[in-house]
């Protein structure tokens, strides 16, 4: 993504709420990106598959893709820029993905950096642990899944491994792979 001269760079920390040990990513993004673009960046950096609805929440305001079938107070995210929601270091916003599993991510503006044409954006600079598999039942279902996978004697062990398509390493995070995908945005 081409960053315009004069645009600040935001260093964000994205933490999946309720995950123990923590699942998180540190990202560099242009301060003036739109929320739909941030959604794409979050999907890639966390490891989600963009199979569900999402929203951004700050205070009592919700931004997302309003759906006539589900009336709500959600405002369209289409033209909302990140720097209109996060203006000072330590400001935060909640990003919820998959309203059924309710994966909540706290996005904190850690630093506001000056424009630097040498910095390729967006970029992931750090992170820990794998993203939970889609549709595993939220943070509680994920915890149960990990318990099941760690116990070969558990009655659902083989079924869960098959559902996952093989082994799952909750500690694995491929930052180089994430950055390769981010570079294609």
Report on the architecture of this protein.
The model has no long low-confidence stretch (mean pLDDT 93). The chain has an 8-stranded mixed beta sheet. By secondary structure, it is of the alpha+beta class. The chain is globular, with a radius of gyration of 17 Å. Helix 1 (35-46) runs antiparallel to helix 5 (175-182) and helix 3 crosses helix 4. It has helices at residues 35-46, 82-85, 138-150, 157-164, 175-182; strands at residues 9-16, 24-30, 54-58, 61-64, 75-76, 92-97, 103-113, 123-128. The chain contains 5 helices and 8 strands; from the N terminus they run ββαβββαβββααα. It has a single domain (9-131, 172-182), classed as MM3350-like (Structural Genomics Hypothetical 15.5 Kd Protein In mrcA-pckA Intergenic Region, Chain A, Roll), CATH 3.10.290.30.
């Amino acid at each position: 993504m081409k960053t315009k001269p004069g645009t600040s760079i935001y260093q964000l920390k994205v933490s999946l709420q309720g995950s123990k040990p923590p699942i998180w990513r540190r990202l560099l993004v242009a301060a003036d990106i739109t929320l739909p673009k941030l959604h794409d960046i979050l999907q890639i950096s966390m490891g989600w598959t963009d199979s569900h609805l999402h929203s951004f929440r700050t205070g009592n305001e919700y931004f997302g893709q309003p759906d006539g079938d589900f009336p709500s107070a959600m405002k369209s995210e289409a033209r909302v820029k990140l720097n209109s929601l996060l203006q000072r270091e330590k400001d935060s916003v909640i990003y919820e993905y998959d309203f059924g599993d309710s994966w909540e991510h706290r996005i904190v503006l850690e630093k506001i950096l000056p424009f630097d044409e040498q910095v390729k954006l967006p970029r992931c600079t750090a992170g820990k642990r794998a993203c939970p598999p889609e549709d595993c039942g939220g943070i509680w279902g994920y915890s149960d899944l990990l318990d099941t996978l760690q116990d070969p004697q558990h009655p659902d062990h083989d079924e869960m491994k098959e559902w996952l398509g093989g082994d799952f390493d909750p500690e694995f995070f491929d930052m180089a792979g994430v950055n390769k995908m981010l570079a294609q945005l």
